[in-house]
Design the sequence.
């Protein structure tokens, strides 16, 4: 098997309402991340579960490597309302079929040292079982995890998350999640307290901090894009998928962080992941060039030069 990126987690049906209207659309953390990765990387696999009621099976067919278990319970479903500042209110959340995404679902022949596994937000006790199975079969596989702040408020699940951080290669959190997991009010203390081979803390419009080998690198976001934001659902998951694909290609955290921010921004200019489905980049530099087409020509040279210097 070639060097594959495999995303494990929820595929959902979403109902999203914001200042631009209301849509029913496919979603789920694993699906957003996998589609983002596929804009950069060809060999992307997905492992999930759906109910017989799932309306968007066609979108799953873009993954030639997929294990989508169909079960006799309703599909995972989220109803999300956003205010004018893009704060999310989860009106309804039903895990449903997502409960059937388990360690046993992973094909043994997918577990090779060349595979990068990303486990999207699920119950940490389950995530740890998945990690342990992967490690038993293929100790050298790279594993990435991101989670949800709700799990960090549960003492038992928080312990699993701390244990998970010691087992995986990459942990992706946003700033509030990092503070909550570390039980501190300051990001500096959180970075000192949280131990992981590579800890990535996203900072929204400020960029991200990557802590690797004990050293922290601040990577600022590219500003001044001023693109119209249509829907922020799945932006963080999109960021994760793009970061992992870029890192798999380049091994460079700076380029990967910038690329992830650009692709997440592109995603937000349309509903769901409709803008991502239109894209296929042949190189990391193509991402910057695409974004530049959306902006004024006077800004093109400095951005391209930044990528060349990195």
Sequence:
């Amino acid at each position: 098997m070639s060097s594959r990126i495999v995303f494990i987690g929820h595929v959902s049906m979403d109902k999203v309402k914001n200042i631009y209207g209301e849509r029913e659309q496919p979603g789920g953390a694993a699906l957003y991340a996998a589609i983002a990765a596929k804009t950069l990387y060809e060999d992307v696999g997905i492992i999930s579960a759906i109910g017989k009621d799932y309306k968007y099976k066609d979108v799953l067919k873009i993954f030639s490597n997929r294990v989508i278990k169909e079960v006799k319970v309703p599909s995972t479903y989220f109803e999300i309302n956003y205010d004018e500042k893009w704060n999310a209110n989860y009106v309804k959340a039903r895990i449903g079929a997502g409960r059937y995404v388990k360690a046993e679902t992973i094909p043994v022949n997918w577990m090779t040292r060349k595979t990068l596994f990303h486990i999207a937000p699920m119950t940490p006790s389950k995530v740890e079982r998945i990690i342990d199975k992967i490690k038993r079969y293929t100790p050298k596989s790279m594993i990435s995890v991101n989670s949800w702040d709700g799990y960090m408020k549960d003492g038992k699940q928080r312990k699993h998350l701390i244990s998970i951080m010691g087992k995986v290669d990459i942990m992706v959190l946003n700033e509030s999640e990092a503070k909550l997991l570390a039980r501190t009010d300051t990001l500096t203390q959180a970075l000192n307290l949280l131990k992981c081979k590579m800890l990535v803390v996203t900072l929204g419009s400020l960029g991200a901090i990557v802590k690797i080998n004990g050293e922290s690198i601040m990577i600022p976001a590219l500003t001044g894009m001023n693109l119209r934001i249509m829907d922020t659902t799945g932006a963080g998951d999109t960021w994760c998928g793009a970061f992992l694909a870029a890192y798999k290609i380049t091994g460079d955290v700076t380029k990967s962080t910038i690329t992830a921010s650009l692709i997440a921004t592109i995603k937000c200019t349309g509903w769901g992941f409709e803008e991502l489905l239109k894209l296929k980049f042949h190189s990391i530099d193509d991402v910057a060039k695409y974004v530049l087409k959306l902006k004024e020509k006077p800004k093109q040279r400095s951005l391209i030069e930044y990528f060349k210097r990195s």
